[in-house]
């Protein structure tokens, strides 16, 4: 059974138009969204989360998104936006703990919430930064904190808009390996095609707001990528390959 079903989705804004006839995503799939700048990847994520309203049907486990109360949505999916900031002077461990809000009783966090936050700090290589103020971190450090917060939400569907932006190669590999080993569904716009091909098992290719292809890794051909990005793509040996130690 499809966990997420999108049918006849249409959205218009100024001269941009997004149209998706039918996409079904099963529980646990790791789906990368590929496409050139402005092709509609972030817009699609925002529609899937209900942050933007289009025409058509988006349903989770056969329930229409519109019928799902906001507090339930936060238990169903989490979102790492392309850009996110924290302007108040919270420290790293507080920001990560805030990911537990959808599960907290009132305003208080349980011991379990704190234990899970601790685990996320460790997984995202943040333990040494835990007392630092978020606003005083580097770009990549901030990104890892926001990722830890999103993963701490423990929602079965995780939307990550370019999760490795600002991350160095080691942390990029660690994050993708971490995501690949989790049971949750991951849906993520990614710009690095080689990384996407390595860590995701399904690819939605967007072009000018339309779904050009919905393929698995072995169907992701240079011809298809050439059509998607309007550049010549060939398959060869990379000058450098990176493997996490
Ligand atoms: N807040 C906004 N208001 C008006 N138009 C917007 C807004 N955000 C994006 N757009 C436009 O909507 C279209 C799709 O943008 P979107 O951000 O979804 O692209 P994207 O594929 O995620 O691009 P990128 O790879 O650059 O992140 C673009 O034409 C963009 O200029």
From TrEMBL:
InterPro entries reported for this sequence: AAA+_ATPase, ABC_transporter-like_ATP-bd, ABC_transporter-like_CS, P-loop_NTPase
Signal sequence region: none
GO MF: ATP binding; ATP hydrolysis activity
Pfam families: ABC_tran
Keywords (A to Z) from UniProt: ATP-binding, Nucleotide-binding, Translocase, Transport
ABC transporter domain location: 4-233
Protein's job: Part of the ABC transporter complex HmuTUV involved in hemin import. Responsible for energy coupling to the transport system.
UniProt name for this protein: Iron complex transport system ATP-binding protein
């Amino acid at each position: 059974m499809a966990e997420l079903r999108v049918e006849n989705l249409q959205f218009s804004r100024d001269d941009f138009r997004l149209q998706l006839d039918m996409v079904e995503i099963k529980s646990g799939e790791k789906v990368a969204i590929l496409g050139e700048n402005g092709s509609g990847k972030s817009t699609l994520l925002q529609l899937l989360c209900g942050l933007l309203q289009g025409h058509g049907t988006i349903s989770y486990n056969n329930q229409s998104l519109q019928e799902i109360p906001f507090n339930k949505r936060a238990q169903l999916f989490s979102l790492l936006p392309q850009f996110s900031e924290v302007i108040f002077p919270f420290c790293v461990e507080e920001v990560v703990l805030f990911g537990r809000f959808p599960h907290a009783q009132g305003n208080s966090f349980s011991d379990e919430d704190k234990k899970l936050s601790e685990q996320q700090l460790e997984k995202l290589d943040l333990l040494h930064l835990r007392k630092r103020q978020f606003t005083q971190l580097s770009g990549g450090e901030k990104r890892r904190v926001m990722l830890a917060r999103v993963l701490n939400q423990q929602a079965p569907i995780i939307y990550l808009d370019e999760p490795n932006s600002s991350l160095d190669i080691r942390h990029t590999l660690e994050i993708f390996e971490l995501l690949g080993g989790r049971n949750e569904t991951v849906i993520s716009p990614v710009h690095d095609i080689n990384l996407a091909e390595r860590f995701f098992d399904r690819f939605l290719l967007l072009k000018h707001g339309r779904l050009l292809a919905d393929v698995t890794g072995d169907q992701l051909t240079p011809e298809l990528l050439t059509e998607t990005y309007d550049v010549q793509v060939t398959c060869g040996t990379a000058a450098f390959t990176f493997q996490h130690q």
